[in-house]
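Why should sequence recovery work at all? Because a backbone constrains its sequence more than one might expect. Tight turns favour small or flexible residues, buried strands favour hydrophobic ones, and helices have their own preferences. The token representation captures these environments compactly. In the example below, the structure is given first.
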């Protein structure tokens, strides 16, 4: 039997299947120079279906994880790319076809894979304690070798994690070195159960906290402060009726309020210790950063009025509204010493921005600089090369929260960018002293370049443009590991 990929937006244009593992030394530097003191690796992941989808069409979010590694040293860049070989990937690879069905809907799977872990490891490539984690929020963390990109398998952190899921957006506490993570749907598909985890730098689970959300929903990202873990809880929800009817897993329910949950980051915390703050219905995908000064908590995150994901629509049946789905960097504050029931919200920027990133050495601490992928509607877009498979995110944006100034860099009418990543100039360089690396999508030629910017001078444009010799697709998240981070491994 032969199958072909569907000619739909998820599989055409820039999202045409690529599926290439690769090792290429010394990529071509088309413009500028790679700073000679940059030494480490930039890891990022793109969802990419190994086989045509079981049910005909599919959303990109259901593709298998393909991990890219840009190893930069001595003014050169080498490229490596491998599949994240999840249990799903291996079962399908053996069968030579797709066996798992729709996104987060086990009712659509082939009988032969019932009960298997459905994770795709397609959302983040994260380094902690010398391990590379390929992450998808519906399953445990998948461990890969950061040097060879070989998959080692799922981990329960020394076998101790009792929840079923681990977030794609963990954080590392800069003082303790602990990996701070969480799970939602922690007792299985559609369950309201939440977990918070801290994992030591040697990969051992230190403690777990369990509680329930007011309703089942996607909890895609969170923030830590020195003392608290912060969870935006918003009504991107689902139920078994939706899954039985083969509707998109998530729908946005504007009849439900949003919440901010404040969880003390210490062993022994129970559901009774958690403070809940209510707010008007809103959509929050990713968080920038947060900190607390005693009882006063500040959380910065892009927020929209309604869903920003057309494939997870408003449940009332309203068509997708790109204006209501536009995200703006906002600041939520609460004071635990007061008897407040609501969080306070304030807009920080007029840029339409998502994929927020910052210098992660100040995770959970008061910080100054943030970078985002920005949609600048004032710039022309020429839709050449077929489907862009999503939004045209044409601009890199930076906010300086100390001076209140902003910078932007537009990548042109036929290009869009993927998530930026901050690279410190050296281990002890001041906050923001370093570079931004990101993949730029050349939509017309269906190729990609890696751009390097001076982090606080992005409006000047890239200081290096590096041609990527294989065709990439839209990617999600990535992270930088310095050579010191990688040295934790004896074989690097
Ligand atoms: C997101 C991405 C996902 C997912 C849930 O960016 C949320 C949000 C790539 O997969 O499964
Ligand atoms: Fe994400």
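From this structural description, the recovered sequence reads:
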């Amino acid at each position: 039997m032969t199958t072909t990929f569907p000619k739909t937006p998820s599989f055409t244009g820039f999202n045409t299947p690529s599926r290439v593992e690769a090792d290429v030394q010394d990529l071509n530097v088309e413009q500028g120079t790679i700073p000679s003191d940059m030494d480490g690796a930039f890891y990022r992941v793109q969802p990419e279906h190994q086989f045509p989808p079981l049910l005909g069409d599919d959303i990109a979010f259901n593709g298998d994880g393909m991990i890219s590694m840009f190893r930069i040293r001595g003014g050169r860049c080498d490229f490596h790319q491998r599949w994240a070989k999840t249990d799903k990937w291996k079962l399908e690879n053996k069968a030579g076809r797709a066996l798992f069905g729709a996104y987060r809907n086990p009712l659509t799977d082939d009988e032969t894979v019932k009960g298997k872990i459905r994770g795709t490891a397609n959302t983040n490539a994260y380094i902690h304690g010398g391990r590379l984690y390929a992450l998808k929020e519906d399953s445990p963390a998948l461990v890969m070798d950061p040097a060879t990109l070989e998959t080692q398998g799922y981990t329960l952190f020394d076998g101790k994690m009792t929840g079923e899921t681990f977030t794609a957006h963990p954080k590392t506490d800069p003082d303790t070195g602990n990996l701070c993570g969480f799970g939602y749907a922690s007792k299985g598909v559609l369950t309201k159960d939440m977990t918070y985890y801290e994992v030591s730098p040697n990969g051992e689970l230190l403690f777990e906290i369990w509680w329930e959300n007011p309703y089942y929903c996607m909890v895609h990202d969170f923030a830590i402060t020195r003392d608290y873990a912060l969870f935006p809880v918003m009504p991107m929800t689902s139920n078994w009726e939706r899954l039985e009817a083969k509707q998109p897993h998530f729908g946005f329910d504007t009849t439900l309020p949003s919440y901010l949950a404040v969880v003390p980051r210490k062993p022994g915390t129970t559901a009774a210790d958690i403070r809940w703050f209510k707010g008007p219905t809103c959509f929050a995908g990713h968080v920038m950063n947060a900190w607390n000064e005693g009882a006063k908590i500040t959380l910065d995150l892009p927020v929209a009025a309604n869903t920003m994901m057309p494939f997870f629509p408003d449940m009332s049946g309203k068509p997708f509204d790109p204006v209501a789905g536009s995200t703006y960097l906002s600041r939520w504050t609460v004071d635990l010493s007061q008897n407040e029931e609501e969080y306070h919200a304030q807009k920080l920027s007029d840029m339409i921005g998502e994929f927020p990133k910052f210098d992660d050495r100040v995770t959970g601490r008061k910080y100054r600089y943030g970078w985002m992928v920005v949609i600048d509607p004032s710039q022309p877009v020429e839709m050449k090369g077929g489907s862009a498979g999503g939004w045209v995110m044409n601009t890199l944006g930076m906010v300086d929260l100390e001076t209140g100034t902003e910078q932007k860099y537009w990548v042109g009418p036929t290009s869009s960018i993927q998530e930026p990543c901050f690279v410190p100039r050296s281990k002890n360089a001041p906050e923001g002293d370093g570079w931004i690396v990101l993949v730029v999508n050349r939509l017309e030629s269906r190729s990609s370049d890696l751009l390097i910017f001076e982090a606080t001078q992005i409006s000047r444009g890239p200081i290096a443009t590096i041609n990527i010799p294989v065709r990439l697709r839209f990617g999600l998240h990535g992270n930088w590991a310095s050579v010191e981070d990688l040295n934790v491994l004896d074989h690097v």
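A few observations help interpret the result. The CA atoms of residues 14 and 356 lie 23 Å apart.
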